[in-house]
Design a protein that fits this description.
Shape: rod-shaped
Structural class: alpha/beta
Largest sheet: 5 strands, parallel
Number of helices: 5
Mean pLDDT: 84
Distance between the termini: 92 Å
CATH topology of the domain at 8-147: Rossmann fold
CATH class of the domain at 8-147: Alpha Beta
Strand content: 5-15%
Amino acid sequence: MQKTIAGAENLRVLILAPTGQDAPLIQRVLIDAGISGRICHSLGELSDMLATGAGAVLLAQEALQSKQLQEFVDTLQAQPPWSDLPITLLTLCGAGQQAIRKVSEPFQKVGNLTVVERPLHPLTLTSVVRVALRSRIRQYEVRDLVARLTASQGELQDKIGDLEQFHDVVVGRELKMMELEKQVEELKRSTHVVSKALQKG
């Protein structure tokens, strides 16, 4: 996920809806709205796709029955500090509150989860996705800002190191000059003593 915000992969919506024609229909709605959508066929494939970039995830409730759910959750938990990938969970029509709480439990430690009950109007779907993508863009901006600050800190440390080295050189020269002046003074005194001794002789 370390590409520019403009990268196509970074703003694509990954879709996992394994029942019937749900995934192609969702993808068509997104494409018609000018949003890039990529269909995934399993949670394992979805986890792999996250490594190359994603703007948001649309996840149907029935996909959570997979044994790969924990792998997907682990992938989400391994996100870098700046990242909080928006996930929209599409619940089954008429699912009760208890059922919704149960299917959303695995994501409690992940964070950025929105639950939407099906069926939903295409306009509602695109609105939810656009909100998710705006959130993701802000995350990328934070990532880039942190990268710039880290680079600036590195440059500042380099400059501080150069100044310290310069200071050490200057101080070293000053100390050498002081030592030379001291030796010159001692030499002058020794010469004065010898000169007086020669005059007395």
